[in-house]
Structure formats: structure tokens, C-alpha cells
């Protein structure tokens, strides 16, 4: 579903991603872990086309983003590039760390907005899609509530419903549990397990190691822009090959 090949990203003289290679298949959850500042969130933004990059490729199904091509926030893309970015974003949704729900809209309108404005669905059709997703997330009774009235776990599920409303085949999560109380983490874990069972590809940036162990089949460790190691979750957590990975995990799991 998603393949990253020799990806390089710099901000001036600072190299953020250094020839990163990573693959996420349909029906698979991959956790991206590592020290803060290692390039994890930047990698997600590159995959979703929110950041341009200097070298390498990102393949999303048959669509290919290449190094040096414009992306949102960079130089104005030409029409061909804009169409390419649109196709990528329709297939890969990004769930932001801070949710970014519109506070002046109801939960229902937050979820229906994208299908209506971007996909061109009629109001009733977009609303029906939103209702179906809110029911799936256990939030049907909150359709007309405002985002600020919900708990963190509920807001995270609304953000997931909003991403799903665009009918992507892959989802990128940036620290999905960082602002949640421990008892709410299980809500998000359950939703992600269901998404994997439904065939979605998930790439999850997280510092919550128990969450990564439970949700991901594979783990990739990113530090200073380089993937130190990658493999099945059980293997990486129980017997890491890299000394840097061992140090990182010991600090978090001690």
C-alpha cells in the first residue's frame, strides 16, 4: 500500500531523513518509534504530501511522489502535481496529534465536511456517511455535540471517523494516545485493531511502547533520520539488534 524508498529530507543544513526505506502493506499496522526529533512526524507528513522532500520516492499504490516535487507548504505545484497529491491524500488519511477538530462545528459536521467539500457528496449523502462512521466509533449519541464537550478518547475517535469519511485505504497516526488518560487508550486500540481487520494499512508514530506492542505487527525504529532496525514487534521489543534501540527501550520500559 505504502512504500518509502531512499527518502531524504533536509531543512537547510539539517538532515531530518537520511535514505529512509519503509513498507506498509494492506491489513498491517506498523509502529514507528524512536527518540523525539528523529524524523517520525516529518516522515508521516512527507507520505501525506504535506512536506516536500529532496530525494527518493514515496509510492502509494500506483501513485509515486518523487524527491524535489512540490508539496503543500512548498512551491506552488503545477496542475499535474496537484492532481497527484490529491490522489495520494484520497488514499492515505492523516490523523493529527492534536485532533484539529473544528470547534464551531458539531461532531456530525466535522465528519461530513470533507466528503461534502472535497468529494462533492450531496449534503444528505455526506451526513449519512458521517452518521454511519460515528455509529461505528460508538459516538452516534454525540452527533450534535461540540468537540469541546467530548473526552480526549472521544475526540480521537471523531478524528479517526473524519479521516475514514474520505474512504482512504491507509491511515497515518501521529501520537494517537499522547493526550489521552491511560484508561482511554484501550478505546483507540480497539478501533485500530478493527481497522487492521478490515484491511486498512496503518502507520503509527508513538512513544507509548505498550500500545505499540499491542497494536502493531511490525516495528521500525527511527533515530536521527535513519531506520536503525525493523522487524516483528515481539522480536524488536524482546531482542533488539541495535544497541541504540536497546538503550531507547530500556529508558522507556524501565
Chain-wise SSE layout:
Elements: E1 2-11, E2 14-24, E3 29-33, H1 40-47, E4 55-60, E5 63-66, H2 79-91, E6 92-95, H3 107-117, H4 123-136, H5 152-164, E7 170-174, H6 182-197, E8 201-205, H7 209-215, E9 218-223, E10 226-232, H8 233-238, H9 243-253
Kindly list the characteristics that best describe this protein.
39% helix; 10 strands; alpha/beta; 6-stranded mixed β-sheet; 254 residues; globular; 4-stranded antiparallel β-sheet
Mean pLDDT: 88
- Considering DSSP H and I runs of 4 or more, what fraction of the residues is helical? 25-40%
In order across it, which strands form the biggest sheet? 6-7-8-3-9-10
Order of helices and strands: EEEHEEHEHHHEHEHEEHH
| Silhouette | globular
Largest sheet: 6 strands, mixed
Strand content: 15-25%
Number of helices: 9
Low-confidence stretches: 70-77
Count of β-strands? 10
SS-derived structural category? alpha/beta
End-to-end Cα distance, whole Å, is 35 Å
Radius of gyration: 18 Å
